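Predict the 3D structure for this chain.
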Amino acid sequence: MAARMNPPQTKTTTPMSASTLVSDTHLMAGLLGERDIRLRQIEAAFPEERISVQGNLISVEGPQAVRVVQLFEELVLLLTSGQGLDESKIDRTIDMARDDLRASEVLGATVVRGAKGRTIRPHTGGQKRYCDAISDNTITFGIGPAGTGKSYLAVALAVQALQSRQVSRIVLTRPAVEAGERLGFLPGDLMAKVDPYLRPLYDALFDMLEPEGAQRLIDKGAVEVAPLAFMRGRTLNSSFIILDEAQNTTPEQMKMFLTRIGFGSKCVVTGDMTQVDVPGGRSGLVGIEDILTGIDGISFVHLNRKDVVRHKIVGDIVDAYDRVRSESDPTNDR
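Done. Predicted structure below.
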């Protein structure tokens, strides 16, 4: 268990300078990194600030001195809790500091303990806001680009709800929309044909429960993974329902799905507006926020490039596509 320590104390000397004393000297190596690589990363993110380290005293001068010192204090708290620091975690902590969020609260939150004791937790402020919205609302829409953890965190919270007996089953569904390939040419019966579309949901489920544990729940009927077409005519009580890839529903399918929700159920709808493959472009996710805003128990959470937790290049790709789309949009203000 990580040793407890008193939180660092920020000392502001002038509006342009601040300092903090790290009381546990042994944490300095993890904080600064080998050959001060983490320190250099922070310096690059705040080029107007001058950071100096003397022993375990960190002093900062510059217009964002207080913010940078608070950033160091949050990193110390993460180290104290037993979390290691790497380049991506430093980047995410910097983003949170700029948004006046406390990284220790965001990265310290536990969603569920997955297979082999691995802790599933939010990695960004947007992901924490998404998890909180799911906990607090009956229906939550998670909208954002690939790699933001929309589906993965929803499955994690569904597993947590099942394990704590808040619900009696999990229902995972997504539309089977052809994106360049045709279902009719795939081998097998209907379920075999749609299985590739459901595979991402299986993967997330197996990551939480291990394949054997997940299969046992599927066999018992406690977990159901099915294409959206199988939802018609049903009422889902005491269920945690996840509709993935909702941008590929039609407006009629979206209405059908949302009206399946019964008593004691919770629903999460995930989608990416930039990946609409539904024929004719009539997406049930487009315009849904205008229709449902103001209804109690429904929340919309928009994730963005800062919430991408895959390889850094994924975030750069998202930015590139967003830039091109913005430039080609005739309604965009120039």
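Residues 1-5, 178-186 have pLDDT under 50 and may be disordered.
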